[in-house]
Amino acid sequence: MKIQAGMWIDHREANIVFLSEDGEETRQINSNVEKQLRRSGDSPSHEPYEARRVPASDRREKGYMGHLSNYYEEIVSATRGAESVFIFGPGEAKGELRKHFHKHNLCGLIAGFETADKMTKRQVSEKVRDFYLASPAIPLTNGGST
To answer: For residue 47, what is the DSSP state?
Structure first.
């Protein structure tokens, strides 16, 4: 059975839609990544040892990127059965996810890639359906005509 997948993604969540001959299935994957810790910007702290209360910036960044990497790996794993994947979303997460597809030699699965604003789950499903109706990503292999 052929499965086509499409997803809206940002650093917090991915809403994935799987289309097949049996219908449509949706799945949400949460990153569970906390926002990066930041020091309050109003004024410098006058408390002693303030720097020790917040981990060093490079350590925070490595931890944050490690959590995101696990998140992207989970998404790649969830879409492994798909014949094609359409990726869209508002920020950098979609590009970072594309790098994970390349890392696993799955870049040939990516049928589309574009920027999109925040969407409801219903809007995501509609966009994925419209994408595959407008440009079917799975070519006919049985020699039939369209």
So the answer is: S
Q: Is 34 exposed, middle or buried (0-12, 13-18, 19+ CB in 10 A)?
A: exposed
Q: Are 89 and 72 in contact (CB under 8 A)?
A: no
Q: How does DSSP assign 72-137, residue by residue? A: HHHHHHHTTT-SEEEEEESSTHHHHHHHHHHHTT-GGGEEEEEE-----HHHHHHHHHHHHHHS-S
Residue 75 near residue 97 (C-beta atoms within 8 A): yes
DSSP state of 22: T
Q: How far apart, in whole angstroms, are the C-alpha atoms of residue 144 and residue 131?
A: 22
Q: Taking the alpha carbons of 36, 104, 77, 134 in that order, is the dihedral positive or negative?
A: positive
Measured distance CA(64)–CA(77) in Å, rounded: 20
**Token pair of 136 as six digits:** 């079917």
Q: How far apart, in whole angstroms, are the C-alpha atoms of residue 31 and residue 94?
A: 13
Strand partners, 128: none
pLDDT digits (tens, 9 = 90+) for 18-68: 999 999 999 999 998 765 545 445 455 555 555 555 555 666 656 666 578
